[in-house]
Amino acid sequence: MTDHTSDARVEFVVETNVPTDHGVFRFRGYRDLLTGADHLAVLSAKSLGERPLVRVHSECLTGEAFGSRKCECGPQLQAALDRINRDGGAVIYLRGHEGRGIGLLEKLRAYRLQEEGLDTVDANRALGHGDDEREYGAAAAILHDIGAMQVRLLTNNPGKRRDLEAHGIEVVALEPLIVGENAVNQGYLETKRDRMGHLLPDSL
Prior knowledge:
There is one protein chain. This protein folds into two domains: about 10-95 and about 135-195, Rossmann fold, CATH 3.40.50; about 100-135, no CATH class. About 35% of the residues lie in helices and about 25% in strands. The chain has eight helices and seven strands, in the order E-E-E-E-H-H-E-H-H-H-H-E-H-E-H. Helix 4 (about 105-115) crosses helix 5 (about 120-125). The N and C termini lie far apart (about 40 Å). The relative contact order is 0.17.
């Protein structure tokens, strides 16, 4: 790892140890030079190895801070931290990705449309947004900086694989992260599976 990335997309700022309920991790903080967002690489105490397990996780205030049951983001983050603490690896935490990239307030507007009967895809489209507006150039730059050019990706979303590989990261395997299902978000998960191609089981 270096103090400056070779990719102009991000700038490394600081590294420090942070004890958490899931273990003690090294937090490496980066500034996104394109968007201005601050991102984190959360590294386990174990060596990354040649093909580390990596979770690229999008910020979700409603699910992570408030425990919203409309998505599975909070449980996914907690499970990923437990997994990398146990097995080694990294969580790349991307800020500015709220609501699949549309922002917090637009996500709440989409939730309001879902209350009227639209699913998550049609709600985004009704507001003039794409189905998923996230991109992972910053995540790829951070992975490059920590020396993780080949990764096992902890995700149900094959779109992350495509985007990371377009930015030069080789994804050697996808590992599922099936957690956080509940009666409230079942329809949301089914939409992600059936309309967005997420790798989720037929029975949720």
